[in-house]
Amino acid sequence: MNTRPFALTILVLSVQSSAFAINAKYAQQLERSGCTQISEGQGCDITKTKAENAKAGFVNEAAAATPKASPAAANPYAGQWVAKADSGATVASIRIDAKEHVWVNGKQVKAKRSDGGLAFKTGTLSFRIQGDRRLQGEDTWIDSDAGTKGKIVSE
Fold first, then answer.
1. 118 — pLDDT class (breaks 50, 70, 90)
2. Residues 6+ apart with CB under 8 A from 133
């Protein structure tokens, strides 16, 4: 008897089943119950409501009562920005909306997320705004024609 096809079938089925570990229904149950995957493992019951689980000590009331942030607040790029030269002169005015549409000096440009930041270009100027707002001084612009570069600051 050849066990090779049988072993291969078992391997494929075991790898495939792990891809379906989290689905939309399970996520809804977690949201409704106030549980997390970690707290569920500690006894939080996803079939109960947030109030019932809070009574049992599994839901943090402050976290449950906190309203969710708006998309604009969650977007680290949204707002008014100014590209400054080393001399302090303004190189460009940048506006980014909550949907990451970008305008440089009033002209809309295409932008894309790249390596943890938002990158866009107009003419010979290339801009990059870092997504992690804890990192300071990493929002930069470069003029490939003149060979100059500088910082971008939030207004």
1. very high
2. 76
**pTM surpassing 0.90?**
no
Q: What share of the chain is helix, strand, coil (3-state, %, to 5)?
A: 30, 30, 40
- Tell which residue, 79, 77, 41, has the closest CA to residue 58: 41
Query: What average pLDDT score do residues 91-112 get?
Result: 94
- Please give the span between the terminal C-alpha atoms of the chain, in angstroms, as a whole number: 74
Is-contact 129 140, C-beta < 8 A?
no
User: Distance between CA 9 and CA 103 in Å, rounded?
Assistant: 54
Specify the residue for token string 């149950």: 29
Closest CA to 27 of 17, 35, 16: 35
Per-residue pLDDT tens digits for 27-39: 788 888 888 777 7
Structure token pair of residue 108: 């809309």
Residue 110's contacts (CB-CB under 8 Å, 6 or more residues apart) are 102, 120
Structure tokens at 97: 């909306």
